[in-house]
Amino acid sequence: MSSQQSGLVVVDKPGGMTSHDVVSRVRRAVGTRKVGHAGTLDPMATGVLVLGVNRATRLLGHLMLTEKTYAATVRLGQATSTDDAEGETTSTASTTAITEEMVLAVVENYSGAIEQVPTAVSAIKVDGKRAYQRVRDGEQVELKARPVTVHEIAAGEFRREGDFLDFELRVRCSSGTYIRALARDIGADLGVGGHLTALRRHSVGDFGLLGATTDLEHVALLPIAEAARRSFASVDLDEEQALDVRVGRKLALSISDTTAVFAPDGEFLALYEPVDGQVAKPVAVFVG
């Protein structure tokens, strides 16, 4: 593979690796340092991690705006410092009085537009420093609630584990939603605490587990043009319009959302967004 090729790599991340570990492995495999990812997965988590190589790294900021789907296991009756199984236990409580119906009723409250306080060990920056690093340094971190959207949420497959109650949680949500925080908040609402014991991301936008690679030594790139067509609405331009795009001009183009535009030969040129009903402006130009 040429180190100058641009495109996406869709990885099925194994547990125990950080997202940065995956980026480092792919950098070595493709022979370039220009590799980034669209949305961190915690070391404990597995599943879809979308990486951009070379010019495709500039697509990632736009891909992060898409929705994601997850399957998780929540344990009720135990809260942890990280809201997942890797943290220290901060409280325990019996769940013998908690019924499946009670859990389902609370879970339903998290459907739709909600305000969510991210987990304290998130990668969110606080005064220029990652929140998780502040926690590691012994600081108290209090993050502000942020608006997120949970499009679908469902609980099922309940099972008792001693004093604990475990259940499976499936979520389709906007980017920026913390599944660990959902587990924490559901447990808090039930008065017994909660945390994640497993998390698997099934999709990021149109990219899912089907076709995702587990081989980080020999990766195949999805070419940037194909990735753009899969991820955005697309418009094929004529030669004159393509020349305008190359110098960053607005286009007389009727679009309703962020759109990928292509030269007559199929080359991916740029992402455009609507200004009004008949004019579009460049969001990111990928050619000179």
From TrEMBL:
Could you list the residue ranges forming a coiled coil in this record?
Answer: none
Which EC number applies? 5.4.99.25
Q: Where is the active site?
A: 42 (nucleophile)
Concerning InterPro entries, the annotation shows: PsdUridine_synth_cat_dom_sf, PsdUridine_synth_N, PUA-like_sf, PUA_sf, tRNA_psdUridine_synth_fam2_C, tRNA_psdUridine_synth_TruB, TruB_C
Keyword annotations of the record: Isomerase, tRNA processing
Q: Domain Pseudouridine synthase II N-terminal, which positions?
A: 27-179
Record-annotated tRNA pseudouridylate synthase B C-terminal domain positions? 180-219
The record's top EC class is isomerase
| GO BP terms | mRNA pseudouridine synthesis; tRNA pseudouridine synthesis
HAMAP family the UniProt entry points to: TruB_bact
What role is this protein assigned?
Responsible for synthesis of pseudouridine from uracil-55 in the psi GC loop of transfer RNAs.
Name this protein carries in UniProt: tRNA pseudouridine synthase B
**Gene name of the record:** truB
